[in-house]
């Protein structure tokens, strides 16, 4: 850029001393100032060059004494250079600002690019995960689509049965069973399915659970984890598993993959009429799940809680009947209908009195009881709501309650009308359950004792495994226990406990405690404080557990005591990994499964027992006791906390070997629990 300045400046001069001297006005030289600017380098720098040219247009003689040309030129130069310098500074600042804006824009573009790349990677991973799904999960999705085709009238039940065989017999290759096929419309999918031939059926069973809970979509008690844990284990063992649930308003929909409504209503009988239901399908942990939503009785499951209402019998008998209506209408022919607790026990009488002749002649019934304390006693005439004959069922050998004979007992009906009854208990044998833990059902259980079997709970060893636990600072196994010491130090540091290697760490995570159990726990802890012991207490998600924890905290104070009032999933893993001992309410803990987790992580499960051993569990030593019960009874079952502390102190090598042996045991869902159920299904198919 070139700037030219021409200035004619009149400067008054003093009169000469001589009167004869002439004066004339002085015309300032013409000045042209040129400032050249060029773009600088990539950093926005500039190089400047200036040139000052002065021309004397008048060539007038200037008396040296009247005008000092050098001073004037210097002042002009100074003024204009300063002006241009300020302009250059402004330009530099402007360009620097532009540079900063450009850098910010570039960073923003890079961030957006990275987000886009991450999203692409995520989508590719999801696609790979879908394509690489295990065959059983994709089979479940296809079977649900076949159900939709039946309900919408695209195919009849006979063709649906053939298509299911094609899927269940694995005649469709892994390449054919893909997300691309599952995501097609029903018409497109049907066209492809019809291309496949049908073969002989393999040995895997087709099991349908009719139940009221399933983790993680709806969880209240131990039933939820039992249904999911067992179903996943059965899938891994090569069996086909489906689940039917009510569509509660409180469902955790985020855990359901591909939730979709079937575009046809399924009708079920209730209170003398047919009522429509919406049918929803989805996949949970690789398991095909069907959700039944009543239309007329829409309030049945549109509530805040799952249980605890005066019309619970009406709600769950409606669901049980609707489930059977859906199974027959969709043409399903499962090997086993697996029902649970009193809520779906009515399926037994409904099946044998009404549905067995509707294409389910080869299906059998297995009832699971998680306890006999809840049985549901009702007036006999209420059985007519779901289509049953009260006069036929209100009899001593059927549904009539053993004590209150004017009522019917729904759980008793499930026991009577099921082909097998699995009682969930980790520590008790069948004989002890029949005669001591029957809650008034002893006559019924004794008559049907051949049906009864006992099964332990399992636990999720994909989440609870110290060799790959993502919550631990260092993993470890029974072959390398170095990581357990690291977890111990990390736990002490996190909770501000002294890092004394000779100190024994005792963890306690419980679901709920009665007042008596709280008092008993206080006595056990105070007795142990005479030793070098650090205690860590954590409650669970149950409000009652937090109230019990507050009561303990008031009574137990000390530098070696730590209380966590809120349940923390990550911390719970670290507590079990870092502890030497885990105090348990009971060895039968189907909700938290603390004894099973403790054994896997190399911590001894010790039951909280009174001085009179009142709460010390002792398993029956007979052939019907579970493997878990036999192992616990021979190791930690009869050991108090004080005895365990003495064992650690005086027999450390023996204690370490016990921990290594415990860690090597497999008490997951895939082990004893799954084996017992597969054996039961095998017997059912032979009946």
TrEMBL record:
<dbReference type="Pfam" id="PF08323">
    <property type="entry name" value="Glyco_transf_5"/>
</dbReference>
<keyword id="KW-0808">Transferase</keyword>
<keyword id="KW-0328">Glycosyltransferase</keyword>
<dbReference type="InterPro" id="IPR013534">
    <property type="entry name" value="Starch_synth_cat_dom"/>
</dbReference>
<feature type="domain" description="Starch synthase catalytic">
    <location>
        <begin position="206"/>
        <end position="445"/>
    </location>
</feature>
<keyword id="KW-0750">Starch biosynthesis</keyword>
<comment type="pathway">
    <text>Glycan biosynthesis; starch biosynthesis.</text>
</comment>
<protein>
    <recommendedName>
        <fullName>starch synthase</fullName>
        <ecNumber>2.4.1.21</ecNumber>
    </recommendedName>
</protein>
């Amino acid at each position: 850029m070139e700037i030219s300045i021409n200035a004619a400046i009149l400067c008054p001069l003093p009169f000469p001393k001589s009167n004869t001297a002439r004066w004339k006005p002085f015309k300032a030289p013409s000045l042209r100032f040129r400032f050249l600017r060029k773009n600088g380098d990539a950093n926005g720098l500039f190089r400047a060059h200036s040139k000052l040219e002065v021309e004397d247009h008048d060539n007038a003689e200037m008396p040296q004494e009247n005008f000092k040309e050098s001073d004037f030129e210097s002042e002009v130069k100074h003024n204009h250079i300063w002006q241009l310098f300020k302009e250059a500074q402004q330009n530099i600042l402007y360009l620097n600002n532009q540079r900063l804006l450009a850098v910010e824009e570039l960073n923003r573009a890079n961030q957006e690019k990275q987000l886009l790349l991450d999203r692409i990677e995520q989508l590719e991973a999801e696609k790979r995960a879908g394509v690489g799904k295990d065959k059983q999960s994709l089979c479940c999705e296809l079977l649900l689509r076949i159900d939709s085709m039946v309900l919408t009238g695209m195919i009849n039940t006979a063709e649906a049965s053939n298509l299911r065989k094609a899927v269940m017999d694995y005649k469709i290759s892994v390449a054919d069973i893909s997300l691309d096929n599952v995501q097609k419309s029903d018409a497109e999918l049907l066209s492809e399915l019809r291309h496949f031939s049908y073969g002989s059926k393999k040995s895997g069973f087709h099991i349908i659970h009719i139940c009221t809970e399933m983790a993680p979509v709806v969880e209240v008690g131990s039933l939820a984890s039992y249904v999911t844990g067992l179903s996943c284990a059965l899938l891994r063992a090569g069996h086909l598993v489906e689940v039917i649930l009510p569509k509660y308003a409180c469902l955790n929909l985020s855990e359901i993959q591909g939730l979709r409504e079937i575009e046809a209503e399924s009708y079920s009988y209730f209170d003398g009429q047919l009522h429509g239901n919406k049918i929803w399908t989805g996949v949970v942990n690789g398991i095909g799940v069907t959700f039944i939503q009543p239309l007329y009785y829409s309030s049945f499951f549109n509530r805040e809680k799952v249980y605890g209402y005066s019309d619970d019998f009406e709600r769950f008998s409606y669901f049980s009947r609707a489930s059977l209506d859906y199974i027959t209408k969709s043409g399903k022919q499962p090997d086993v209908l697996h029902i649970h607790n009193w809520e779906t026990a009515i399926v037994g009488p409904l099946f044998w009195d009404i549905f067995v002749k509707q294409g389910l002649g080869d299906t059998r019934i297995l009832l699971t009881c998680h306890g006999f304390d809840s049985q549901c006693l009702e007036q006999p005439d209420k059985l007519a709501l779901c289509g049953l004959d009260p006069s036929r069922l209100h009899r001593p050998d059927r549904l009539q309650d053993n004590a209150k004979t004017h009522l019917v007992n729904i759980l008793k009906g499930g026991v009577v009308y099921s082909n097998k009854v699995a009682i969930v208990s980790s520590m008790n044998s069948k004989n002890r359950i029949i005669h001591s833990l029957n809650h008034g059902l002893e006559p019924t259980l004794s008559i049907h004792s051949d049906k009864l079997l006992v099964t332990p709970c399992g636990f999720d060893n994909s989440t609870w495994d110290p060799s790959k636990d993502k919550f631990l600072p260092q993993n470890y196994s029974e072959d390398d226990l170095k990581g357990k010491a690291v977890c111990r130090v990390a736990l002490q540091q996190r909770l501000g406990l002294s890092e004394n290697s000779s100190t024994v760490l005792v963890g306690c995570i419980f679901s709920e405690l009665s007042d008596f159990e709280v008092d008993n726990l206080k006595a056990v802890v105070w007795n142990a404080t005479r030793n070098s012991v650090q205690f860590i207490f954590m409650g669970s998600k149950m409000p009652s557990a937090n109230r019990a924890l507050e009561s303990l905290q008031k009574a137990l104070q000390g530098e070696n005591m730590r209380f966590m009032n809120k349940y923390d999933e990550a911390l719970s893993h670290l507590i079990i990994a870092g502890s030497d001992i885990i105090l348990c309410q009971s060895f039968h803990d189907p909700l938290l499964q603390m004894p099973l987790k403790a054994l896997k992580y190399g911590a001894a499960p010790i039951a909280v027992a009174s001085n009179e051993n009142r709460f010390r569990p002792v398993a029956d030593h007979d052939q019907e006791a579970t493997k878990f019960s036999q192992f616990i009874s021979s190791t930690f079952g009869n050991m108090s906390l004080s005895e365990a502390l003495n064992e650690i102190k005086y027999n450390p090598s023996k204690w370490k070997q016990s921990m290594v042996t415990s860690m090597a045991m497999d008490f997951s869902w895939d082990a004893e629990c799954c084996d017992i159920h597969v054996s039961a299904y095998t017997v059912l198919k032979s009946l």
